[in-house]
Amino acid sequence: MNETTTHYDLVVVGAGIVGLATAWTARQRGLRVAVVERNAKAIGASVRNFGFITVTGQRRGEHWQRAKDTAAIWRDVAPQAGIEVVHEGLLMLAQRPEAVAVLEALMATEMGEGCNLINAKTAARDWPWLQSGIALLHSPHECRVESRDAIPRLSHWLEHSLGVDFFWNTPVLGIDLPHITTSRGRLRAERCVVCPGNDLNALYPDVLAQAGIRQCTLQMMRVSPSQVLKLPSAVMSDLSLIRYEGYADLPEAQPLKARLQVEQADHLAQGIHLIVVQSADGSLVVGDSHVYGDAESPFASAQTEDLIMDEFHQVLNLPKAKVTERWVGSYASAQDVVFKAQPSAGVAVGVVTGGTGASTSFALARELLDLALGA
Ligand SMILES: Cc1cc2nc3c(=O)[nH]c(=O)nc-3n(C[C@H](O)[C@H](O)[C@H](O)COP(=O)(O)OP(=O)(O)OC[C@H]3O[C@@H](n4cnc5c(N)ncnc54)[C@H](O)[C@@H]3O)c2cc1C
Hints:
- By secondary structure, this protein is α+β, with helices and mostly antiparallel strands.
- The protein has 2 domains: 1-51 and 146-211 and 335-375, FAD/NAD(P)-binding domain (3-Layer(bba) Sandwich); 87-143 and 214-333, D-Amino Acid Oxidase, Chain A, domain 2, CATH 3.30.9.
- The chain contains 13 helices and 18 strands.
- The structure holds flavin-adenine dinucleotide (FAD).
């Protein structure tokens, strides 16, 4: 690169989902855009996640609205970028009366719009692979993409169909507009949006320190169900109702929290709740746990995996399911669900700090672009 002759309207740092969503939004507004990524391809949280674009359960208010908007954009963008939407919706199995009370409370809010509470008999008839429960919430808002395939397809489409320039293997070392200094030379741009994910040390460390971020490490696995099975939707369980703030912040969640603290203390100590989604080949992506620290933990615990699989078997009647792949991922976590800053004129920094970047990236991208443009 050395010094590019192109003067970009916008340079985006980071080719995770937040960076790609920002590049897409900027192209929608007719800007000339480049994305600069330190690695040869995206290998961070954006390809390690469930690809589960979740609306119901997101923090009530602004963040829930971000998720609604983002899901709508995914449904629009995915077919254009050649990304398969693997399944739609969410099935939340309630196995305790306290969990049913949370779902009923959710249904009475604006967050219950479009959702259905299904009784146990109907659930058993329609979804025989679910263990028995008392009630089942169906939310139609969610969709799922296979992230490890979707993220490369999205960047390929942005480059080859929408004319975004990509600079891979290129860490950005400093930003002093109109100059963006990288390990390979300089780019020129009017504006810059920094989407560093959980890399808090390379650019604006003092600004990012204000967010109070810790690193959250999650264990994930792929499970083969050993029988032909089509999950129509993602599946979650009682533990999710005290983790996802859209449910957990409702007063009705308190009795469920108290009960689960007694019955599933080991799961809660590892931050475990259950998400099960399905891939096109029929395998299931299952997780997850949440352990917090000052750095990503590279190690996966067998005990944590056993606890996740224990919850899996409580919820799904798939006794012969086998783990075929394991990985860890991490994201930047803080009290607030999103961190945005404008460290200097024309520059915006954005980090999803609530573990929901697949679900909220496109809406956040609009906010980051407005910040950089001073709109
Ligand atoms: C295991 C796991 C499961 C999850 N499940 C879900 C889910 O189902 N649904 C959901 O909504 N969210 C989920 N999340 C959260 C979601 O994946 C993240 O919020 C999201 O991927 C963050 O995207 P990002 O682009 O900010 O970060 P990243 O994907 O980490 O991308 C940041 C990129 O910036 C690059 N970068 C950083 N600094 C520089 C620099 N100086 N120069 C050049 N490049 C740089 C990095 O190399 C990286 O590629 C999950 C996360 C994990 C870890």
